[in-house]
Amino acid sequence: MKEKTGLMKNKHKSIWVFGDYRNYYQNRVTLQLISKAMDLAKSINAEVCALIFGYEIDEWIMEYTAHGADRILAIDDPALKSYSTERYLAIMEALVKEREPEIILIGATDFGREFAPRLAKRLKTGLSADCVGLEIDATGLLVQIAPSFGGNMLAEIVTEYHRPQMATVRPGTFKEIPHDNRRKAQVERLSLMKGLPQPRVRLIEYERCAEKEHSIENAQVIVCGGRGMGNKNNFVKLHELARLLGGGVGATRPVVYAGWADHNSLVGQAGKHIKPKILFSFGISGAIQHTAGLGEADFIVAINKNPQATMMKMADVAMVADAGDVLHSLIKELKRRIRE
Amino acid sequence: MLQLVVCIKQVPMVTELPWDEKSGTLRRDLAPGMMNPACKHALEAALQIKEKYSAHITVITMGPPAAKEVLYEALAMGADSTILICDKIFAGSDTYATSWILAQAIKKQCANVDLILCGAFTSDSETAQVGPQLAERMNVPAVAYVEKIEVNGKTLRVRRIVDNFRETLEMECPALVTISMENYLPRYVGLGGLQRAFGEHQIDILDAAALGVGVGDVKQEGSRTKVRQVFLRKTDKENVFLTGVAVNVVSEFLNKYERKISTVIGKSIEGKNRTNEE
Prior knowledge:
The complex is a heterodimer. Helix content of chain A is 28%, strand content 26%. Chain A is α/β, with parallel strands linked by helices. In chain A, the strands form 3 sheets. Chain A has a 7-stranded parallel beta sheet with strand order 5-9-4-1-2-3-10, sandwiched between helices. In chain A, strands 13-12-14-15-16 form a 5-stranded parallel beta sheet. In chain A, helix 7 links the parallel strand 14 and strand 15. The termini of chain A are far apart. The N terminus of chain A is likely disordered. Chain B has 2 domains: 220 residues, Rossmann fold, CATH 3.40.50; 44 residues, no CATH class. Chain B is built from 8 helices and 15 strands. In chain B, helix 2 links the parallel strand 6 and strand 7. In chain B, helix 3 packs across helix 4. Chain B starts with a strand and ends in a 13-residue tail after the last helix. Chains A and B meet through helix 4, strand 5, strand 7, strand 8 and strand 11 of A and helix 1, helix 3, helix 4, strand 9 and strand 10 of B.
C-alpha cells in the first residue's frame, strides 16, 4: 500500500546539501556534507547540489563551488537577510516538489535539527537525526547510522518507500575536501517565489554570543566528580588535580544539586558536552544523563569502589578503589613527578 | 485562562538496551522507566506559566500501560489532567507517525490549546524531531530550544540560544515550543506527593478507537523510516581494571600511562625510577 513517491521519475539523480552558512565559523558542516555527498553520488550516479538562501551570498556560492558542489541553487534576496525557519521551509518545499532530489543532507546544527523535521513532515518522508555515518547499500538505499542512548547504541535507519531520503548529520563526522578555486559548478540563481506565506514567528532581536572563555568544553584534560566523592571537601580537591594537569573540573547533576559545584561545570545531557583527550571520572556511576555528554572523550580513567558501575565499563582504565583515596594519592604522586 | 499541553515521554533509566532481532525493537520492558529529563523541564516551564498567569495543564504521553508512572509524577508536580495514548498498533512509531498520533489526541481532547510544550529531545532516541513535526501537524508557529517564555495576552515572547546566536522571538497563540535544559530546573517532588497523586487522580487512556483512528489512517500516516539494526558502538577500549590499595593503584596507573599523560599535558611525569617516599 505504500506509494513510492518520486522513486523512478528522476532521470538524473541529485543529492542536495543545505547550505547552513551561519554555522560556517563554528563547524563547517556544510563543506563536510558536500564532501560526503560527492562520495555517495558516485555509488548512485548522482550530482551534488548545494542550496543557499540568504542575502549577499556570493562568498558562499564560491566557497561551496570550491569545495565540490556540481550545482548550486541560490536565492539572493533582502527578505532572506536573517535565518528564518519558516521562509526556508516554504522555499525548500517548493523546490523539492519541483525537482525531486533523491537525498537531502542537512547539518545537525541547532538550526538544522529544527528545520529538517518540519521539512520532512511537509514532504511526507522519513528523516534520521544527528547521523554519525552514511553509506549506500547494494540496493542503492541510503543507510543512515544514528546514535541513541548518548551514543552508546547506533541504529541503522533507512527510508525505503518515500523520497527524498533525509538525514541530519553531526558536524565533524566527515572531512571536507580541500578548497580548489579551479572547480566549476552550475550556478542557478533563482528569484524568491511569489506569494510565500508571511512567517508567523517574528525575530525581535539577535546577536552572536561572545566566544566562551575558559569553558571546559574545549579542555584537553577534564576531572569529573560525582556523589562518590563523599563530601564537598573531597570534591574541591579535584580542582587541585585539574590544576596540576592543566585541565578543568566537571560535575554530575547530584553534585551540582548538592552545591559542591556550580551549574557551569555540569557535564551531561543538560550541561556541557565535553571532548577531552583524557577524562578522569571520580566516584561517578554513569547515569545516562551524565554519560550523554561524554561521547567524544578520548581516554577515560574511571575511579569507583563499584567495579559494576557503568562508568567503569566505559573506561579505558578502571581503578577499583575509593575515589577520595585515589585522588589524594594521585595529587601527591603527580606533585613528585611533574617536571615543567 | 491559558490552556497548556505538555507532551512527555517515558524513557529507560539506562545507557543501553538489548535489541530484539525478531521484533526489530528495543526491549524497553527490561529497564526501569523515568520521565525524560527535557520533558520534565518542559513541564516545569508550564508550571511556572501557570503560577504566573493562571493556566490549565494537560500532560500527554504515548507508551505502554507502564507509562502511567510518568503521568502520576506529572500530576504530583502540579499538572491538572493527563492522557495516556496506548495502543499496540502505535508501537514502533517513528517521529513522523508519533507526531501525527499526538496531534490527533490534542485536536480531540484539547482543541482550544494555547501552547504546546515538548522537551527539546529525549535521552533514548535523541531525535529532537517530534516537537517540530507536531507543530507542522497542528499547523501552529513554533520555536525550538526555548530557555525563557513570557506571556502577554495571547502573544508569546521566547528567548533561546541557537548556533551561538542569542535570539528573542515572538509569536501568537496557539503555538508550540520545545524546551531546552538550560533553564526551568524541574521542581522536586517527594514520595508523599507521588503517593497523593496515585491516590487522588485517574489517568485517561485513549486507544486508537477512542482517537477515531483506523488501521488505514495508521498506514497512511505511519512511519517513514525503518530501523534495520541496532548495535552497541564498537569500542577499541582495553577496559583495564586496576585493583588494590589506592597508593599502589595510582603508581601502577602512572607507570603504565606516564608517556600518554605527559604528551597530553605538555609536562613530563615520566619518573617511575624516582623513589617513592611514601
